[in-house]
Design a protein that fits this description.
- Belongs to the Clp1 family. NOL9/GRC3 subfamily.
- The protein has 16 helices and 27 strands.
- By secondary structure, the chain is α+β, with helices and mostly antiparallel strands.
């Protein structure tokens, strides 16, 4: 690295001799030199070079008649500990307020002046690292005034290491902490907590939390990307930040802790309260051995975990700057801005946004960002689920229409809810019955009141090849889409761009260009728009383009977590030990009052009960009344009907004609259920293998089974899938 020095600038025969340096020639210096101005200009020049050069310099005596020294900035507050990521001066510069600039008590001593008003200076340590000098110079006003001791310098960026010890304090109550963040500071973490904004504003996953709003739960498990809290600063109006913050903190901190944090509060600060988070969901998940570390950092992040901070006792672990957290590309931010502008009135009617892209490209992450951003401007957002394998609000295998009113500050298993309308498809892929998939989505769309003006977000599958791509073309034609957000990665698109121009000649599964030959009745009543806005997003989310291989990050594990999240609703909301499912009291349902059907395969009626026992079933409502001739009612084929929830068929009593059903669905809604549908979505194995209290063989579990027997495995039936080479062949 090149080192730039000014070694010898001395007076010879009454005049200054030139010093030849790389890039610079200083010559013809005047005998009477305003050294204060020269110092300022020289330091400014050196600061411009610091990004390329490491500078270590000194200035010797310039004039024997001017021997007065000016002290350089080396004073730093001794009480402030050194931050690990930033080099600091040993003594911190002080800031002075406007009414104290000329005060003798400000700590600034004026140097003796020369006849021309200048002063001389010298550095005490010629080996001083220039990074310290640059930071000191940036903290000093042009007039040389130092700043006040009450204000502590805070660097924007990631909060980690020692900075967390200075900016966070434990509360007077056990396991509670208060954190002060400056504008644009971030904190990335794993774990779970409840966040309350006491002062200023913070942003999480696109959602803004203002002071005075209610508390929100945050979930950052190892199965998904860590969460990042970012401080947005305060509002534009002027406020007495110190006094107001002190009054707020006195309810949560002791006097000593409050005094430490108040020093760091400015008009652009944000103060958040962090509480531990324990819910029936977290207790239920932690009861399984393989999920006990779900909210801890994965192995790949252990070296970046910041331990021994006031926040660790809350159940959250901050991460160092080596872990990037959620990263959004420029095209992603532009797409979010475009959609939000459209939803705020740039278009007539409501915005209908269809999000598509290959699997593992970040569609779900983008949708959560979009929903949270829209909730900053509207009270609710409609969500149409079209991805059977990675559902957002229900267990896998469902198509649903939900109204989202709360921000999504965690992965899908943390916000399972009851949609307004739902259809149980029974599989995590639609390849076996494309017609039923399209009919289900159209049925859900018809149930949405067309007078609603809230935006609609449509999630789609990651199947964008062959028939999957044709289904996308059909959905854009069937639904009144205003925006198509197409995600890709690696600088290329993994499928053709679904622009309006491309759609004019594209082949759909049900539709043909240029007219919609199928579903004329549907289009006559809904008038899909002739054009829409196509937005191409290059995804830069964590792990984009590849299937997760670490524990809890595989797609099948995500589906199991969503189902466990749904079943956690069976637990009591009151704190206490987790009750295994076999200890809960089930509902008794007469088999003559409900029909039983299998959706994903063909099962003989005599084997139907063996297949349904100890399985997950959809609780559905048939339009026609179920009638029995004295025995159980069995459906001969799958039917399209509304679903109100799910249950576990934990036992069948053939002698008494009863089904024993566990479900979190409210009894008032259960009265409408007259059909139990069995699909390919099976219970997680941990539900069956983790049954405490049994000394002998556990129920529903056996090791005496061979898949080598004919018919022992699953039987798959493919409907309507003809090879392209056989199309048109009779």
């Amino acid at each position: 690295m090149c080192v730039l020095r000014i070694k010898d600038c001395c007076k010879v025969n009454g005049s200054m001799q030139s010093a030849v340096l790389p890039w610079i020639t200083i010559s013809s210096w005047p005998s009477k030199l305003n050294l204060h101005v020269l110092e300022h200009r020289f330091r400014t020049f050196i600061c411009l070079c610091t990004t390329l050069l490491h500078v270590d310099y000194k200035i010797m005596k310039v004039n024997k008649n001017t021997q007065i020294k000016v002290k350089m900035i080396k004073e730093h507050q001794v009480s402030v500990k050194k931050k690990p990521s930033v080099r600091r001066l040993k003594n911190k510069p002080k800031t002075v307020s406007e009414n104290k600039k000329n005060s003798p008590g400000s700590g600034f001593n004026k140097p003796d002046s020369q006849a021309n008003g200048c002063s001389t200076f010298a550095l005490d340590d010629e080996k001083e690292d220039f990074q310290d000098c640059r930071e000191g110079s940036e903290s000093v006003h042009a007039n040389g005034m130092e700043t006040s001791e009450d204000t502590e310098e805070v660097q924007p960026g990631r909060l980690e290491g020692e900075a967390l010890h200075h900016c966070a304090q434990r509360g007077t109550q056990q396991n509670r902490a208060v954190l002060v963040m400056q504008k644009n500071q971030t904190m990335c973490f794993r774990g779970k907590c409840i966040v309350t904004c006491l002062y200023g504003r913070v942003e999480v996953m696109g959602f803004t939390i203002d002071e005075g709003q209610r508390s929100y739960p945050l979930f950052a498990p190892a199965s998904h990307c860590p969460l990042t809290i970012r401080a947005l600063g305060n509002s534009d109006y002027i406020r007495d930040d110190r006094t107001e913050a002190s009054n707020i903190l006195q309810d949560y901190l002791s006097q000593a802790s409050r005094k430490k944090l108040v020093k760091k509060v400015t008009q652009t600060s944000s103060i958040i309260l962090l509480d531990p988070l324990e819910t029936p969901l977290t207790r239920f998940l932690s009861s399984f051995t393989h999920l006990s570390e779900l909210f801890s950092p994965p192995v790949s992040e252990l070296m970046s975990a910041v331990l021994d901070t006031p926040l660790n006792g809350l159940g959250m672990i901050p991460l160092g700057s080596t872990i990037e957290g959620l990263k959004t590309s420029r095209s992603c931010r532009d797409a979010l801005s475009t959609v939000v502008s459209a939803c705020r009135g740039d278009i007539d009617g409501c915005a209908v946004i269809l999000v598509c892209g290959i699997k593992n490209v970040g569609k779900s992450t983008f949708i959560r960002l979009l929903v949270n951003t829209l909730l900053n401007h509207t009270s609710s957002v409609d969500y149409l689920e079209g991805d059977l394998g990675q559902t957002e609000f229900t267990p896998a295998g469902c198509l649903s229409l939900a109204t989202v009113k709360e921000p999504l500050l965690g992965p899908p298993f943390t916000h399972q809810l009851a949609p307004e309308h739902m259809i149980y498809y029974g599989q995590h892929s639609c390849e076996t019955d494309l017609d039923r998939y399209l009919e289900s989505l159209k049925s859900l769309w018809r149930r949405r009141p067309q007078s609603r003006e809230m935006p609609v977000i449509i999630n789609t599958m990651g199947w964008v090849k062959g028939f999957g791509f044709q289904l996308l073309v059909d959905l854009i034609r069937f639904l009144p889409v205003t925006h198509v957000v197409q995600l890709s990665h690696g600088g290329t698109t993994q499928c053709p761009s679904l622009t309006p121009e491309f759609l004019r000649t594209a082949q759909g599964y049900h539709t043909r260009p240029p007219t919609q030959t199928a579903l004329n009745e549907f289009t006559e009543t809904h008038y899909p728009p002739r054009t829409y806005t196509h937005l191409n997003v290059q995804s830069e989310f964590q792990g984009v383009g590849r299937q997760g291989t670490a524990t809890h990050q595989r797609s099948n594990e995500h589906r199991e977590l969503s189902l466990l999240g749904y079943l956690s609703q069976l637990q009591s909301p009151d704190p206490g030990p987790v009750r295994p499912l076999h200890t809960l009291t089930p509902y008794q349902v007469p088999n003559t009052a409900v029909a039983l059907g299998v959706m994903h395969c063909e099962v003989a009626p005599s084997h139907m009960f063996y297949a349904a026992n100890a399985s997950l079933v959809g609780l559905c409502c048939l339009a026609e009344k179920v009638t029995s001739k004295g025995g159980p009612v069995v459906l001969s084929q799958a039917t399209l009907c509304p679903c109100v929830g799910f249950g576990v068929l934990r036992g069948i009593d053939m002698a008494r004609g009863l089904y024993f059903l566990l479900t979190p669905v409210d009894p008032s809604i259960l009265r409408k259920v007259n059909c139990l549908l069995l699909g390919a979505i099976s219970l997680p194995s941990c539900i069956l293998t983790t049954q405490p209290g049994f000394e002998s063989e556990m129920p529903y579990v056996t090791a005496d089974y061979s898949f080598d027997l004919t018919g022992a495995g699953k039987l798959r039936v493919f409907k309507g899938l003809m090879r392209p080479s056989l199309m048109g062949v009779q």
